[in-house]
Amino acid sequence: MRTASVRKLTVGALAAGLVLTGCGTTAEGGSASGGGDGAISGLRLLVPNSPGSGYDTTGRAVAQVMEDEELASGIEVFNLEGAGGTVGLQRLVNEEGNAKMLMQMGLGVVGAQFSNQSEATLDQTTPIAKLIEEAEAIVVPGDSPHQSIDDLVTAWKADPGGTPVGGASNPGGPDHLTPMLLAQEVGVAPTAVNYVSYDGGGELLAGILGGDVAFAATGVGEVTEAAEAGDVRILAVTSEEAVEGVDAPTLTDEGIDLVFANWRGIVAAPGISEDETQAFVDAVTEMHDSEAWQQVLEDQGWTDAFVVGDEFTSFLSDESDRVESVMSELGLA
Amino acid sequence: MDAFTELIGGFGTALTPTNLLYAFIGVLLGTAIGVLPGIGPAMTVALLLPLTRGLDVTGALIMFAGIYYGGMYGGSTTSILLNTPGESASVVTAVEGNKMARSGRAAQALATAAIGSFVAGTIATLLLALVAPTVADLAVEVSPADNFAIMLLAFIAVTSVLGSSRIRGLAALGIGLAIGLIGIDPTSGQQRLTFGIGELAEGIDVVVVAVGLFAVGEALWTAAHLRRKPIDVIPVGNPRMSRSDFQRSWKPWLRGTAIGFPFGAVPAGGAEIPTFLSYVTEKRLSKHKEEFGHGAIEGVAGPEATNNASAAGGLVPLLTLGIPTTATAAVMLAAIQSYGIEPGPQLFDNEPELVWGLIASLFIGNAVLLLLNLPLAPVWARLLRIPRSYLYAGILFFSSLGAYASNANTFDLFLLLAIGALGFMMRRYGLPILPAIIGVILGPFAEQELRQALQISNGAVSGLFDPMSVVVYAIVALIMLWPLVRRFVPRKVVPSVLEEATHEIEEAHHHHGLTDSVSVAGTTEARRRFDRAHDTEGDG
Question: Of A3, A207, A215, B314, which residue is least crowded by CB atoms under 10 Å?
Fold first, then answer.
């Protein structure tokens, strides 16, 4: 009797395991190739950065809206961080032909593939859509002596090496380019800047709060909460006009001629068919048109920057060139 | 006091029959999915999250807490029974837990894990409720330099207390560190030890290494010895924890809580370092050192409590700073945000009902977990009575499933076999497994913290030293130099005869519960020496 019940238990557990892992992870039997009508199932969204980072927030918001709008069911968001997104990019490139995987990416990945001379590159992937743009913020810890961007710049010029600046991207990414372009603008040699890269906004925020870095450049959305609580102070934002809900001037207001924006989008694995690509584009377009997504944009303070298909493909290659030329112009390439 | 009133208010919102039902369903499903190998708590929570949609915030959070705790406990269950940890935090549990299970004490291992999780979870949740903002302020002060020092401590501590020889321990650590190097360097983006294989460039998943070294290595080892040695049947054993099990467990539970909570609260902390440290601490403090490596209950009680306490600690940066430190916390963040609530410094002020409801939910989920799983422990334990050849076939099957499930990548299956073969060879040549796993898990973190600390100081080595890290380095030095130092400490001249006597006294103590029944201890002189010998044991 006992053995019989044990056997039943085992069989049950085995069956449950098969069923569950089956529906969670296999790539068979979905409907991604079946056009844009049916919900896509078994999709995995790769976030090439740590939990709490800008990519993570964006990716999870995308997954949420796609599920709520019934464009997809059971999307699994997973993090594979490292090297500013290069590790994740390599993973996606390895998944050639897998029509069940998307990757959240952005300017940071463009920069990282350049500065890391990554073997996997974005032009190997299948671009789907650019979703949003976001201004960068120049922030200092709440107890920092620097009250304005002028204070900061003065201190920075006096001792660039002793003024570590943090960012959540690898060299070439937005959080790196922002302080470098700023340095060039205010007369600090970009090569003298002491840039510390963190893997994702969460770690960076902890680094700012702990006073490990003197100041940081990062996406506005990643520090608004902390700024409202007074834990950090936003000295300036890099957009053309002030960001709604953020009590900080633009760099231009402060007499520094620099406007800069980060962007984020989605790419799919290399080698998927045109139908499969189109199904993704359709699903993302439908997601973008939903009210829920507009709400997300508003809540997060992101600017809509929706571009799909070929247009996004050529945008990507332009960005690649731009990063390269900026980096070499700054003497950092 | 204010917090207590709020907490009771939280219970008021959370404790309704419907919500209790949600808690039960959550725990049940969480455990059921959590026991599947390769599926850690983060994935369990992500898989089951859609179930909480459509419920009101409180109901959803309660079910969520149930799923969370259920998932974590489910992961420990497979670690103990099958030696297949589903995530890095339950690796240590597998070390002693599986040994216990194979000597017929699976029920006790599961019970001490369940009660330990409950105790730690309860205390840690209470701490979360009372001191979260203060802890968060302190936690962010921990710098990369400090983190690096602590990881170094974990390496040295684990390597020096495990196995018969330090050299073998260090060799195993080296193997682990080398495996941890494989992939794209997270700082510079260069490929290391990848030999042009694209799949290796993304690094090797910790679960694959842990399951390969533990479960596959063990299965191969057993298979290699099947013909020479008759298969010993796992004894049935008592289904309940005995009084001495409790006596040996309660201190590790509390110590585990004390170690786990602060680490969880540190933004770069996590559950790995504290579980390793807890294991080492318990081994050092245990009166049953000889049982370590053969199934010591302290080695399950401590790390399991630590794991749960660090999970609760992880809510500190999540709720007070909006920083998720683990994948599970990130899923939780998304869930909370989907109700239009933004965790952050002002959450406690802006959404007191939600926060206290969540904290009360954690208490309830924790309690339900204990109620549901304690009676189930003997049932699970009976699973091991399957004839061993089938059992190991099953373990291999589940290991492969787990390795595949964590990444849905067939390449991982080949890796699993290769690492399993490595695990076999390590057993063959007497290299301890745990230091290797520590190397794989903590090596990359340690490297990154080191490089970040040096980046911050602009390359100056002095950047590695601040008050906290200096203290940690002093402890590291002490551990390393201890064998040398011990020679000059006069107390160590205690003759071995006395140690034996002490041992006898302890034995008697356990059997009769009375030290005085043994004549040796009758004289005050012997008693004094006994106490002294006892003291040295703590740091020896």
Answer: A3
Q: How far apart are CA B79 and CA B37, in angstroms?
A: 9
Most distant CA pair in chain B, distance = 72
Name the 3-class secondary structure at B333. helix
Structure tokens at A141: 């810890």
Range of the domain at A187: 135-261
User: Do B413 and B520 sit in the same domain of this protein?
Assistant: no
β-pairing verdict for A126-141 and A303-308: antiparallel
Rounded to the nearest angstrom, the minimum Cα separation between A162 and chain B is 7
> DSSP character for B207?
H
- List CB contacts (< 8 A) between A60 and chain B: 330, 333-334
Bridge-based pairing state of the strands A101-106 and A40-41: unpaired
Instruction: Find, in chain B, the residue whose alpha carbon is nearest to that of A78.
Output: B327
Q: What is the dihedral of CA A244, A245, A248, A252, to 10 degrees?
A: 0
From the candidates A62, A225, A296, which should be mutated to test the interface with B, based on the most B CB atoms within 10 A?
A225
Quote the Cα angle for B87-B90-B96, to 5°: 140
Instruction: Examine the fold and report which residue of A261, A284, A304 is the final residue of a domain before the chain moves on.
Output: A261
| Residues A82 and A51 placed together within one structural domain of the fold | yes
**For the whole model, what pTM was predicted?**
0.72
What is the pLDDT averaged over residues B230-247? 70
pLDDT of B270 > 60? The answer is: yes
State the DSSP H helix or E strand holding residue B246, giving kind and residue range, or none if neither. Answer: helix B243-265
A209 neighbors A203 (Cβ within 8 angstroms): no
Percent of chain B with pLDDT over 90: 10
Rounded distance between C-alpha atoms, residue B12 and residue B4, angstroms:
12
Give the contacts of B19 (CB within 8 A, at least 6 positions apart): B58, B59, B62, B361, B364
Is residue A292 in some structural domain? yes
Does B381 share its domain with B464?
Answer: yes
Chain B residues with CB-CB distance to A3 below 8 A: 385-386
Distance (Å, whole) CA A213 – CA A193 = 12
Amino acid at B140: V
Backbone conformation region of residue B143, classed left if phi is above 0, alpha if psi is from -120 to 50, else beta: beta
* pLDDT value, residue B202: 81
Q: Is B204 on the interface with A (CB under 8 A)?
A: no
DSSP E strand stretches across A7-98: 40-41, 44-47, 72-73, 76-79
A/B interface, count of CB pairs below 8 Å: 188
User: In this predicted model, what pLDDT tens digit does every residue of A303-331 receive, in sequence order?
Assistant: 899 999 889 999 999 888 888 888 888 87
Indicate the number of domains in chain A: 2
Least CB-CB distance to A64: which of B141, B338, B386?
Answer: B338
B154 and B232, same domain (yes or no)? yes
Q: Tell me which of A66-80, A276-290, B284-298, B398-412 is least confident.
A: B398-412
Q: What is the ipTM of this complex?
A: 0.70
Q: Distances from the Cα of B499 to the Cαs of A22, B414, B425, B538, in angstroms?
A: 57, 50, 37, 14
DSSP state of A250: B
Listed residues A261, A294, A309: the one ending a domain: A261
Interval A189-234: pLDDT, tens: 888 899 998 877 778 888 898 888 999 999 988 888 888 888 899 9
Alpha-carbon span A179 to A195, nearest angstrom: 8
